[in-house]
Amino acid sequence: MEIIVAKFGGTSVGNGERIKKAAESVVKEYMAGKKVVVVVSAINKTTDNILKIVNDAIGESVTEKQLADIVSMGEITSVRVFSSTIESLGVKSEYIDPYMDNWPVITDNTYLNAKVNFKATEEKSNELLKLLDQGIIPVVCGFLGKDDNGNVTTLGRGGSDITAFLLGHCLKAEEVIIVTDVGGVMSTDPHKLRTAKKLDKISVEEMRDLATHGAQVLHPHALKYKDPNINAKIIGFENGDLSTIGTEIMGPAEDQMLKTSALNSKPISVIAVVGEEILTKKGILSELTDTLSDNNINIYGISTGQNSITLFIDKDIADKAHEVLHEVVVRNEHLSSISLGMEIAMITVTSPDFIDTPGIITKVTEPLRKNKINIVEISSSQTSVVVFVDWNDGKKAYELVRRVLK
């Protein structure tokens, strides 16, 4: 029998009517022969209301331990209501919170932004399998954890999403379903543009970047636990049907699951275009990049300043790029000069752990500083850091930087 992990966000359990609809959707899958683990957030606005009360009553005097214990009441309440609703529909269910011995999510003792102890959580998740084998639907608090001393912790913002993907991974589930107030991932915020369309599919890498830059559908930290062998989708609560079509989350690619590093095999050339306050002039960047695209020239990176735009181009075609961009400079009144500069190396380090690692750029660049290696340019995303250095320093810099992954 396949295992499904279904996570219901606060809006999807925002009132009694929605809770009943959610419970009915779970029972429907159960009756179809599937084992279902439910992860539930606090009922809509509950946590916000609790935090306001704490702020009004205690203010800054509240300790992190006290706050984690207090805000846990939202999820602790919602699992009891949800589990009881399932039982009212004639199916056995048990709620599970951090005060119980069979609680699965084990963390360190950072009360408000705890890190998961994956090995311990994987072992404790066997308790859920025992319930599933008995025909019981477990309803687990999202967002919460427990440290080795039995203290309640929280997983930080988006914690319920983390719980769902984490348990899906530990239980080797067939599918993780995230139930939200939208029908899936949209091409943009539908509240801002009516032309927004639902996406049928999106990759983990795209979803992570989308979430990092403000999309509220799914927290990027949760995707760290997305197993490439487990199906996942985001659906809306309106249909009351877990089998409904939403947006499928694809991947991640195998190399995105690993810590990797790479050094480009050939030098990259630096081309700098200058002009007075060109960042305030419309269309300059577009004209430069369109010209390179029209000439089938790839760009490895772009750096912008108030009076300059720097482009990183494969050395083998840098002369051609220099020539075609010079034509742009000559005809554009806002540009004054262009230079073809040094040969540089590009070092890329990638790890899904970077998203949870404060100061990762410092960790990457500090060994270069100590060894007096100058950084020409640096760029980063949630899971990777790209460093450009002088070509002659490339191999040494690569060896220094890759140690960050160990």
TrEMBL record:
The ACT domain covers 349-406
Q: Give the EC number(s) listed in the UniProt record.
A: 2.7.2.4
Annotated organism of origin: Methanobacterium paludis (strain DSM 25820 / JCM 18151 / SWAN1)
**Record-linked SUPFAM superfamilies:** ACT-like, Carbamate kinase-like
Q: Which GO terms describe its cellular component?
A: cytosol
Keywords from UniProt, A to Z, are: Amino-acid biosynthesis, ATP-binding, Kinase, Nucleotide-binding, Transferase
Protein name in the entry = Aspartokinase
Which Pfam families did the record assign?
AA_kinase, ACT_7, ACT_9
* Catalyses which reaction(s): L-aspartate + ATP = 4-phospho-L-aspartate + ADP
